């Protein structure tokens, strides 16, 4: 596997001045009808000096090869001159965004889900990006999709019944993103790619089970709300009986306490308004 080698070629300004001088000399020879020397100087200028000029913009690099052999990579920005026989390939060192497509996969529990991720990456080692893989951008796309599929297979979408401790795709966003970033860095290191950030951008149940899972979530929410209501109602009933007993407002036997508890629980736990009934008789009629 190729290791990146950074080189610093000489500045191109002095060579550019020589190029202008040779061009002027060739023009003078043509004007003086010395066509042979004029042609030689022009050929040297065009074929041996001018092709060696390099202009590197900020956050760009140039990979150089000479007759099939890797010479090095120029990462410094500026104007340079290199061997004109070298083959040059320009690579950007800027950060790139990969907005992955929505994938339909099964989670750890076998539920079909839709998932997609956003990956921020950049080329870190140009030699690996050029020589270790055929097309490093296509390599990033395919390996990112494979990593997202693998991540979806090892975690459930949501907590299973009675399980609250495991990491899920829905609630463990930070941990899942960290694992995805680490796996992508491991997969893409072969191509000299560094992953700066990776996060889940889309997560949902597949359409065929979305309605059933929504009903399950609604039922869970209703049960949790009812549980809270019952706990509050029992506390209120307990407080009412205790206050009545402390202040001696009325003496109730066990049967009437049970009836009172039943009525209060119906009033407090019911989901509809209660119609009051006024008792005009005695407590026992």
TrEMBL record:
Protein name, per record: SPFH domain-containing protein
Pfam families named among the record's database cross-references: Band_7
GO terms under cellular component: membrane
Domain Band per the UniProt entry, residue ranges: 51-217
Protein species of origin: Pedobacter kyonggii
UniProt keyword annotation of DNA-binding present: no
Membrane association type: Single-pass membrane protein
UniProt entry tagged with the keyword Transmembrane helix: yes
Membrane-traversing stretches: 12-28, 34-56
InterPro entries xrefs: Band_7 (IPR001107), Band_7/SPFH_dom_sf (IPR036013)
Subcellular localization, as worded in the UniProt entry: Membrane
Entry superkingdom: Bacteria
Coiled-coil stretches noted in the UniProt entry, renumbered to this chain: none
Keywords recorded for this protein, A-Z: Membrane, Transmembrane, Transmembrane helix
